[in-house]
Amino acid sequence: MLEIKNLQAGIEDKPILKGIDLSVNAGEVHAIMGPNGSGKSTLASVLAGRDGYDVTGGEVLLQDDDLLDLAPEERAREGVFLAFQYPVEIPGVNSAYFLRSAVNEIRKHRGEEELDAMNFLKAVKAKMKELGLSEDFLKRPVNAGFSGGEKKRNEILQMAMLNPKLAVLDETDSGLDIDALRIVADGVNRLKGLDNAQVVITHYQRLLDYIVPDFVHVLYDGRIIKSGDKTLAHELEEKGYDWLIRDAA
Amino acid sequence: MSSATTNETPPAPVEAFAQVEQAGGPLLPLRKAGLARFAERGYPTTSDEDWRFTSLKPLADLPFLPTLEPLGQALGQADIADITFGQHDVDRLVFIDGHFSSDLSIILEQPDGVTITNLSNRLSGLENEIGSLSANDENPFIALNDAFFTDGALIQIPANGSLAKPVHLVFLSTANEASQATHIRNWIEAGANAQGTIIESHLSLGQAVASTNVVTETRVSAGANLEHIKFQDQSLNAIHLASLHSELSNDARYAFHSFALGARLSRNNLRMRLAKPGIECVLNGLYMTRADQLADHHMIVDHAAPHCDSHEYFNGILDDQSRGVFHGRILVQPVAQKTDAKQTNKNLILSDNATANTKPQLEIYADDVKCTHGATIGEMDDDAIFYLRARGLDTKTARRMLMHGFAGEIVDRIQHDGVREELDQLVWNRLEGEHHLD
């Protein structure tokens, strides 16, 4: 599904990612953990194609297509979804209008028929019910005035509607209380299938109680310094990162 | 004030006054006083703080001849069939160059006690009303208007009454001489608990270049609810000067929406007096300018009683070398405890040569109040564009969506469904057609 080979990237000559190798197969959930400043969010941004990051080496393949050659919207249409750490408030743009436009762009790209307003509403309301979101969500402008938890749930709703092949969740758990965390995790778990994959970036082990990863990777100073199964996350919870950092040094 | 302008008060309007004087009428004292005030004051200059960003130089060089007689252009229903809001089910008063056209106006049956007519038809009895709300304003254009107004709308809704349908005031300018000026006067009155929707359109026929100077006085009585939508879409050669004076009473609700899309130079002076408790006043505006247009909104909201809310929301989309000006002053007097006042002005700049001048001002003399203000001037938000692109929308669509949303924030506050929907579509079409979206 996703093949990252020796990826190097930075901002304005400052290297942040210093050679990342990661292979994610369909049906898998990978967690990427690491202390602050290790490059976790940079990795998410580079995968989604955010401006301002220079890729200086390596490659990223999504089902054999070179992802780094594509514009952000092309990546999204190919099935990459980034759940933002800080979802952007867009006053004045109605959530339903925005989401239907996005869904239809992606359907168009896949050669599927676009959803009319009625069918879209039917589909989105069903998803909202699953996520425990109230219907007034749709009438509000995108993220504008939303609480932290609402913003994150909105990301999960978008993800559910866009049905990506590869979902990258960038610290989706930050700022969530335990109930919101459960809802978010539940949304991710519902999406999980044999033909898609998820990369969950998190600082804390807490989220991984609800989204059980197949693999856990520790990112430090722009490199993956340790990979393991879910027990690694528990080990990190108990012992912190220092022991790994010492070993890596 | 610069002495140069005071000394050079154009003589032409003064001469034209002979004709006004000859016509006489119950408002002659008001007219005389207006003329005297204007002669004393002259045009404002940019050294007046209230006119700092808006130079009237092009106008001060003109004779500003009032169109005291109709200009003779015969218009039929077909000429105005396509105007904005022309297809709505409304009562309509049409004025051409400040003169009432009964042929083009449509007034169907309204409930008992409702008056919808042209002001010059009913002047007697209003001698002490007209000018009473604008009297303390030093704006020389009010003085000129007092002296020279030809006509305008009179709308009176009795206590507990409501308009059967919205009233659409259509002010058409056909005058093709830059030296001509149309002076329009409106008086709007909503009795206790009355309700209504009023649409006020200022349009030009073709590329009419004349100046419009409109003064509107609005009295909203206790518990009344009035929605007032002003749509200024005059030719890009025209000059539009407007002054709105509203006096609101206990628990009244007044929403004024200003859409400033046309005219080379437009200026809206908005003066709200909140002298009774429980008032909710909303001033909501959108200006979209291009070429060398200038759109200026200048408002003073005077909180002179406790427990009133006032909200000002103005968004501007500025292209080419155009300029947007926002000057919002909220005055909270010592007595006005529990005031909730908010003002925001946001400007979206689409060109390197466009300018926004913004001056939000709070002046607070009470200690138990909630007042906020804020202003932004900027280009489109890159983070927002990336967010939309990350969901599959291309850059052009993302920019269109953001711009539409930016204008939509203002349009969405219109309560009247039909008006809101038509304006939404109109704004959208303009943005698509006129602005750089790539």
For this entry, give a set of tags.
heterodimer, A: 249 residues, alpha/beta, Rossmann fold, 6-stranded mixed sheet, 8 helices, B: 438 residues, 10-stranded mixed sheet, globular
Task: Explain what this protein looks like in three dimensions.
- The complex is a heterodimer of chains A (249) and B (438).
- With 249 residues, chain A is of the alpha/beta class.
- Chain A has one domain (2-248): Rossmann fold (3-Layer(aba) Sandwich).
- Chain A is 37% helix and 29% strand.
- Chain A contains 8 helices and 12 strands.
- In chain A, α5 packs parallel to α6 (178-191).
- The mean pLDDT of chain A is 91.
- Chain B has helices spanning 3-7, 11-23, 28-41, 57-60, 77-80, 140-148, 382-389, 395-411, 417-434, and strands spanning 65-66, 91-96, 99-106, 115-118, 153-157, 167-173, 180-190, 195-204, 211-220, 225-233, 239-248, 253-260, 265-274, 280-289, 294-303, 309-318, 323-332, 340-349, 355-364, 370-378.
- Chain B is α/β, with parallel strands linked by helices and 438 residues long.
- Chain B has 9 helices and 20 strands.
- Chain B has 2 domains: 3-274, no CATH class; 382-438, no CATH class.
- Residues 1-7 of chain B have low confidence and may be disordered.
- Classes of the chains: A alpha/beta (249), B alpha/beta (438).
- At the A-B interface, α2, β7 and α3 of A face α7 and α8 of B.
How many domains of chain B? 2
Strand order of the largest sheet of chain A: 6-9-10-3-11-12
Helix/strand-derived category of chain A reads alpha/beta
Largest sheet of chain A: 6 strands, mixed
> What is the level-2 CATH architecture name of chain A?
3-Layer(aba) Sandwich
Low-confidence stretches of chain B: 1-7
Whole-angstrom Rg of chain B = 21 Å
CA-CA gap between termini of chain A: 31 Å
CATH superfamily of chain A: P-loop containing nucleotide triphosphate hydrolases
Tell me the radius of gyration of chain A.
18 Å
With helices defined by DSSP (H or I, 4 residues minimum), what is the helix count of chain A?
8
Largest sheet of chain B: 10 strands, mixed
Helicity range of the residues of chain B? 10-25%
| Low-pLDDT segments, ≥5 res of chain A | none
Distance between the termini of chain B: 45 Å
The amount of beta strand of chain A, in percent, is 25-35%
Instruction: Report the average pLDDT across residues of chain B.
Output: 91
Taken from the alpha-carbon principal axes, the silhouette of chain A is globular
Number of strands of chain B: 20
